Amino acid sequence: MNTCIRKRPSAFDGRLYGVTVLMAVLVLLPDPGRTEGPMLEAPAACATAAPMASVRAEAPLALRDAVAAALIANPDLAVVACEIRVAEARMIQPGLFTNPQLRVEVENVAGSGDRRDDEQAETTVLISQLFQLGGKRARRLRAAGLARDMVLWDYEARRLSVVSATVKAFLSTLAAQERVVLADARMKLAAKTLSRVQAQVDAGAAPTADVARARVAAGRARVQQQRATRGLGVARGVLASAWGSQKPAFSRVEGSLRSALAPIGEDSASSVVRNPDVARWETEETRQAAALALAESRRIPNVTVGAGGRYFSNNGDGAVVVELSIPLPVFDRGQGAAEVARHGIVRVGAERRASARRAAAALGIARQRMEAARNEAALLRQEVLPEARHAVVAAEAALGRGLIHFTDLLAAEVAELELRQDEIAALESASIAAVDIARLTGTSLTIFGEGEGE
Fold first, then answer.
1. Residue 105 carries which DSSP code?
2. Is the same domain home to 241 and 267?
3. Over 90: is that where the pLDDT of 449 sits?
4. Is residue 29 domain-shared with residue 95, that is, in the same domain?
5. Most confident of 5-9, 19-23, 285-289
6. Of 8, 142, 253, 395, which one has the greatest count of Cβ atoms within 10 A?
């Protein structure tokens, strides 16, 4: 049998070799539609980094350093970065060819009569490859790429949210620091007043009721001071958590709420299209259209082509075998998937419009909050606080002439400090509203003379 094969190599072996090489070339050809690496830029790392060295222990913290630390080491951003890598990995599979199949058949073996042994056997070796028609593979790649782009939009939205939350936490910490300063000043004034009143009572120049009133004022000042200190500790912890730190390492934050109200650019209702929460829906509409195109491509059947050789044991002859297989799209033509994609396009359009309306409404509310807080801060600074200062000066003069008591002067001083607390609250509210506007419009926000881009 082996001798017979050696006697007939030329015609059969040449044809079989040529067909086999052709199939191998078709299977192993590089894919022109495949792109190596991501098409869009994405975060380079997929793990939580250590907090930035710019957040130095026991050193003042600037806003720029706080935002930079949050962008590098925020745990939520690390999670989305991993999701991007997962989406990029999912782009590999749709671009691969299906594996070729090797089939071996031996016929007319272990039968009866002349076919009891393998002398009448026919051995067929066939290699086949599925070829996808209708652009299915390219459309799968496009759908996978758009899915990755949606994750990139998620990362951009999360990144802006992290920046926004970090700036807000910084502003809250800055306001808490100023509240502590005012609370300390109030406590010192109350303690000084109590000491003076006690001295007057001991000298018989004031009734003992004044001591009780002074002690109540001092107790309230201590409560306010403890409350302000606790508020500062909470604000510092929230700020440190922006870059994954459980304990604040910085000594204090640097800046001034009174210089925080810098222009934030154009903030009309139409500017919400720059918001990634709104802009992402355009990519989602494209992704749904790609899903529809992929579903419609299933109407075109794939083709399986095979080629190989057949060996006849009875005489040592050989022959080339060619196979062609095409499924008939009688029942399943991807109708269900196409209908789902069509409804998905309609749904995404509605989502896009609803998202834009929500962002525009939130923008209007934030603008009103900012304007109201700005007006309140301006009124306090330009009119009310000067009057409060004048009242304190008048009370000091009246006390010098013996017309009022020390507790009356303390009341005027406390009123001035409380108005300064109101000014701090208004400035904080205006600044936070400005951050919200920048987040909703996707514009940059300049605070403390620095361009902290969102």
1. E
2. no
3. no
4. yes
5. 285-289
6. 253
Give the lowest-confidence range in 89-98, 240-249, 275-284, 435-444: 435-444
SS3 content of the chain, % helix, strand, coil (to 5): 65, 10, 25
Distances (CA, A) of 116 to 1, 106, 107, 111, 431: 17, 14, 12, 5, 94
In a domain, 409, yes or no: yes
207 and 316, same domain (yes or no): yes
d(CA 135, CA 299): 11
Question: What burial letters (b/e) apply to 100-131, b meaning 16+ CB within 10 Å?
Answer: eeeeeeeebeeeeeeeeebebbbbbbbbbbee
Question: Structural domain of residue 76, as residue ranges?
Answer: 2-255+300-333
Q: What is the average pLDDT across 113-129?
A: 83
Q: What does the block give as tokens for 186?
A: 């109030």
Q: Which residue has the higher pLDDT, 118 or 168?
A: 168
Instruction: Judge whether 345 lies within some domain.
Output: no
The verdict on 167 and 273 lying in the same domain is no
pLDDT at 22: 36
pLDDT in tens, 27-57: 333 343 333 333 345 565 565 555 454 566 6
Rounded Cα–Cα distance for residues 142 and 289 (Å) = 10
In whole angstroms, give the CA distance from residue 403 to residue 399.
6
In a shared domain, residues 275 and 326 = no
| Token reading at 64 | 């720029």
